[in-house]
């Protein structure tokens, strides 16, 4: 248990108190076979809210609560809050192999991978759980734990109720979404700082989309690591944020190191931080950042969640993203309100504001929860022209087993227009595309089942290619794309079976 003398319990704001009551009522009214997802913007106090929910649930139901996180920092932060409100709790980290004194604790906070390993060894590793709370519930790694707690309620908490994997929507696991206060209402209520956005047009030609649907790190490093982009970043900082405590988000480590070098040459107080740093070095850098009024911290990925430094005055998005969740996470790092901080600045160097709208904009999260594909397509519609320019990058290792060069050389847009020019049907381009995938897979396959494994490796590439095809035709709907993909994959499997079963 964490020493409460070092951590003062946070008192709930009126809207947080109302939220706690509303969530507990939802759980009471709907019984055991019910999972609830709760949305609240970054900075709205999710940890305070679900810690209080855990306390009252334990008190009223006399059952234990399990809280799942994906970062050790979030586990420690939650444990401190629980201890401060007098909830006996235990953090399950990699060092905890068993819990002989299990009845001494009312609440457990666990890293998802660690707990999954323990539960696979012993399904009764943590017993008597009535409520499972999932922090940052948009991450899909938590799903593997749900099977062990089929008789418990699950409460997911997130700022952006969009799954990190579009193939696994959150409405598969949650029965209902409860939407909390909006960003604009939290700003009006004085709970969050308001943002002033500064956008700079950048040429994103050369970015490639990876299997996760976002721009790849390697292509981002090429685009953002060049001299002209470094100069544009420096110009934007000097025009808007000189002297501000500034947090810069980059896509890749190489870019971030270049940023540090560029700013140091101009005499600015800057340091670089990424996930390869030791805990000791990371703590030292974050302490420096906290204590230095004019500090600039150039980071990669590591500070999007589980990091809270209210004194940040400027956020710089020195990267492009197609993830609305990541967009909100990055900007949210600057939104904490202080007595002398009612506003903060956002410098966008990735056309992200054009892609998603300003951070304070209203978003229909119910629509996102019920129809995630439609919601995301609407958000990214302004980037349609860009997507034609953006290539696809295969996951690491694919080139070792497949002839990806042959796949890259097939341009479905060009093939489509060739078909039209030669009096063929546009749909013939899809057949030619399928033949291209078929030949590459057959060439590398040992047998039919190996061919199916290779087909799985190119499934995201198939979707990317078919999306480009649907943009060529005049009438296309999400349902048509779905139909195309299902038909394409089924026929490709049939072609592979017909050939490989005989070999």
Please tell me about this protein's structure:
By secondary structure, the chain is of the alpha/beta class. It has 3 domains: 178 residues, 3-Layer(aba) Sandwich (Rossmann fold); 179 residues, Rossmann fold, CATH 3.40.50; 107 residues, no CATH class. The chain is 46% helix and 14% strand. The protein has a 7-stranded parallel sheet. It has a 6-stranded parallel sheet with strand order 8-14-13-10-12-11, with helices on both faces. Strand 13, helix 11 and strand 14 form a beta-alpha-beta unit. The protein starts with 13 loop residues before the first helix and ends with a helix.
Task: Give the topology.
Blueprint lengths: L13 H17 L4 E5 L6 H16 L2 E6 L2 H13 L4 E4 L14 E5 H10 L7 E7 L7 H4 L6 E6 L17 E4 L3 H6 L5 E6 L8 E2 L7 H8 L2 H14 L5 E5 L2 H13 L4 E4 L5 H13 L4 E5 L13 E4 L6 H9 L10 E6 L3 H5 L8 H6 L1 H9 L3 H6 L1 E2 L5 H4 L2 H6 L2 H10 L6 H17 L3 H10 L1 H14 L5 H23 L3
Parallel strand pairs: 1-6, 1-7, 2-4, 2-5, 3-4, 5-6, 8-14, 9-15, 10-12, 10-13, 11-12, 13-14
CATH class of the largest domain: Alpha Beta
CATH superfamily of the largest domain: P-loop containing nucleotide triphosphate hydrolases
**Total domains, how many?**
3
Poorly predicted residue ranges: 1-5
Provide the β-strand percentage band.
5-15%
Structural class: alpha/beta
Relative helix content: 40-55%
Q: Can you name the CATH architecture of the largest domain? A: 3-Layer(aba) Sandwich
Which fold name fills CATH's third level, the topology of the largest domain? Rossmann fold
Report the average pLDDT across residues. 88
* Largest β sheet strand count, sense and barrel closure: 7 strands, parallel
Number of strands: 15
Radius of gyration: 25 Å
Helix tally equals 22
């Amino acid at each position: 248990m964490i020493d409460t003398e070092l951590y003062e319990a946070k008192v709930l704001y009126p809207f947080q108190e109302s939220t706690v009551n509303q969530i507990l009522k939802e759980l009471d009214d709907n019984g055991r076979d019910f999972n609830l997802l709760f949305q609240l913007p970054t900075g709205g106090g999710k940890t305070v809210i679900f810690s209080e929910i855990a306390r009252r649930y334990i008190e009223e139901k006399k059952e234990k609560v399990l809280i799942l996180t994906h970062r050790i920092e979030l586990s420690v932060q939650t444990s401190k809050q629980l201890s401060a409100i007098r909830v006996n709790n235990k953090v399950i980290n990699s060092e905890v192999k068993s819990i002989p004194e299990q009845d001494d604790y009312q609440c457990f906070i666990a890293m998802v991978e660690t707990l999954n390993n323990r539960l696979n060894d012993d399904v009764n590793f943590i017993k008597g759980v009535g409520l499972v709370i999932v922090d940052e519930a948009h991450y899909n790694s938590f799903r593997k734990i749900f099977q062990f707690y089929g008789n418990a309620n699950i409460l997911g908490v997130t700022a952006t109720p969009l799954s990190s994997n579009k193939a696994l929507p959150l409405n598969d696991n949650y029965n209902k979404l409860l939407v909390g206060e909006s960003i604009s209402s939290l700003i009006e209520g004085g709970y969050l700082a308001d943002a002033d956005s500064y956008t700079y047009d950048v040429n994103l030609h050369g970015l490639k989309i990876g299997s996760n649907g976002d721009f790849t790190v390697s292509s981002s490093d090429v685009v953002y690591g060049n001299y002209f982009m470094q100069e544009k970043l420096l110009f934007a900082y000097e025009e808007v944020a000189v002297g501000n405590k500034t947090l810069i988000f980059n896509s890749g480590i190489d870019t971030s190191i270049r940023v540090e070098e560029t700013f140091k040459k101009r005499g600015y107080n800057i340091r670089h931080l990424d996930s390869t740093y030791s805990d000791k070095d990371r703590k030292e850098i974050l302490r420096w950042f906290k204590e230095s009024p004019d500090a600039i911290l150039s980071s990669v990925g590591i500070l999007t969640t589980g990091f809270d430094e209210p004194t940040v005055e400027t956020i710089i998005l020195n990267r492009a993203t197609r993830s609305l969740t990541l967009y909100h996470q990055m900007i949210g790092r600057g939104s904490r309100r202080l007595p002398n901080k009612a506003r903060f600045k956002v410098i966008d160097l990735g056309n992200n504001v054009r892609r998603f709208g300003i951070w304070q904009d209203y978003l229909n999260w119910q629509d996102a929860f019920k129809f995630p594909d439609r919601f995301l397509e609407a958000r990214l519609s302004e980037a349609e022209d860009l997507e034609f320019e953006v290539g696809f990058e295969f996951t690491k290792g694919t080139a070792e087993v497949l002839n990806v060069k042959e796949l890259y050389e097939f341009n479905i847009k060009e093939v489509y227009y060739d078909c039209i020019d030669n009096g063929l049907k546009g749909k013939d381009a899809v057949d030619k595309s399928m033949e291209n995938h078929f030949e590459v897979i057959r060439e590398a396959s040992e047998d039919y089942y190996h061919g199916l494994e290779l087909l799985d490796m190119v499934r995201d590439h198939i979707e990317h290619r078919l999306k480009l095809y649907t943009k060529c035709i005049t009438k296309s709907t999400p349902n048509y794309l779905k139909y195309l993909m299902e038909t394409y994959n089924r026929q490709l499997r049939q072609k592979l079976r017909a050939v490989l079963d005989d070999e």
